[in-house]
């Protein structure tokens, strides 16, 4: 999440199992991606659409308690020379083309 972090009121402290702003932001993000996927289904183009979900950079910091982690990699958003600033996960959905459940360590490059 890029600053300024702000959650829609529909997700702001509305579930006691979510412990704070970051969890509320993730819940809203999940909901919004679901809305996009629902629109693709309703338009009848979901099976013909490559959906890619990724980040443009690693975490803001490289420690878990603040809400993000670069995993085993050194660095974060403010340390571009280290792997932790550029390595991030991505998910791809393309029914009938990309098999479900595949996990790979292959590289993907996206430039912004």
TrEMBL record:
Alphabetized UniProt keyword annotations: Calcium, Hydrolase, Metal-binding, Signal
Keyword presence, Signal: yes
Keyword Methyltransferase: no
Domain Sulfatase N-terminal: 14-105
Superkingdom, natural source: Bacteria
Molecular functions (GO terms): arylsulfatase activity; metal ion binding
Membrane spanning stretches: none
Listed InterPro entries: Alkaline_phosphatase_core_sf, Sulfatase, Sulfatase_N
Cofactor: Ca(2+)
Annotated family: Belongs to the sulfatase family.
Protein name: Sulfatase N-terminal domain-containing protein
